[in-house]
Amino acid sequence: MKSSSPPRVPCWLLEFVLPVSYRREMLGDLIEEYNLRTHSSSALKSSLWFWGQTCRSVPSILWSLLRNGDWFTRLMTAFGVFLAMVILRCSAGAAVSKLIAPGEITQVVLAPIVSLVTTAIGGCVVARIRREATVFLALLVLVSVAVLIAIKICTTPVPWWYEFGFLTLGPTSVLVTPAVVWSLRPPTKRVVEYK
Amino acid sequence: MKRGELLGSLEYIVLLALVRLGGSAYGLLVLREIAARTGRNLSIGAVYGTLERLEEKGYISSSTGEPTPERGGRAKRLFQLEAAGQRALQISDQTIRSLTAGLKSRRESL
After folding, report:
1. Nearest CA of chain B to the CA of A177: how many Å?
2. Which fold is adopted by the domain B8-67+74-102?
3. Partner residue opposite B77 with nearest CB, options A1, A22, A195
4. Helix (H, G, I), strand (E, B) or coil at B61
């Protein structure tokens, strides 16, 4: 049977999120079913099925990563990177307020950018050290943002979507950025890993 | 009976699917079997997460098959039911039987 290529982005995401123990096998299963479906239905429908399976699989994979394995080491790794992120975020915030934008409104505008860059860097660092710890870092970011919102650290009145953006985009940035960075690596290296 | 011996609902379903498939089965076959028999459209991630957990508990074992081009050069992971898994299934069956025994008339009257 001639095999066709499944959508690349969900493949990258799964390659990133799946534990080593069944990464290749589960992706193989998905590709097998995808190829079967492309022969019986349209490529669009098959791609949608692949996307659907990926989106539904990721939460259960992350949950099983949290439940199983050496969670203490992962949590400690995530916590170490989280502390480094806090230092980086505070330093960047101080630099922005002193050098670029002393005004409170400008800081409100710049804060999401600084935070997103910090979480993206943190996500890449933790994925480099211990990939399984990424989900713990995302959870730490989620909890810390929720606490900061609850204690109303931002004195300037902001709309609800501004806070909601922090709450959702921060953890998402931790999880997605390393996957995107990984997908941008030269293809030759990736082929070697697949084999 | 120890607390850990009673299977979760998904573990129970996945183990039963493995028994039905017999011999060696891989994740995709388990997913298809569950969908065909129960109508439950599970995600492959949920199936693999459960299979992994069952293997850690020693209820099933796995071996690697041959890679094929249809799978993008990736091998299958073949799962087999172990004696401990068989025993866990028996315990769960027994528990359900003892809890449902004599309840038919009462459940119908609800």
Report:
1. 21
2. Arc Repressor Mutant, subunit A (1.10.10)
3. A22
4. strand
